[in-house]
Design goal:
- The chain has no helices and 11 strands.
- The chain is an all-beta fold and 119 residues long.
């Protein structure tokens, strides 16, 4: 099992920046990728960004591309999500996720951190 703990959420104003952190523990040696998802009330959880643990390859949703940056610290088993130019539409609970080795889907999830962006 991989345990994930998010931090860094909060209430900010439109245009502000925020950096989320996710610390992984447990069977971190089995991770192949980490990522961020978000879910707003009444909506499905959606993909935000991911990063491959081996080569650092990244992927972003169209809605955040150019504004958000995902990065990793292999030594600390930590992934970050730098969020710039935040918009009210970014308001959601943000979840950290990990994909195991030889797995095609993210299977480990954190409990989430609330990000609220006011106009």
């Amino acid at each position: 099992q991989v345990q994930l703990v998010e931090s860094g959420g909060g209430l900010v104003q439109a245009g502000d920046s925020l950096r989320l952190s996710c610390a992984a523990s447990g069977r971190t040696f089995s991770m192949s990728a980490m990522g961020w998802f978000r879910q707003a009330p009444g909506k499905e959880r959606e993909f935000v960004a991911s990063i491959e643990w081996s080569d650092g390859g990244t992927r972003y949703s169209n809605s955040v591309k150019g504004r958000f940056t995902i990065s990793r610290d292999n030594t600390q088993n930590t992934v970050y999500l730098q969020m710039n130019s935040l918009e009210p539409e970014d308001t959601a609970v943000y979840y950290c996720a990990a994909r195991g080795l030889y797995r095609s889907a993210f299977g480990s999830w954190g409990q989430g951190t609330q990000v609220t962006v006011s106009s």
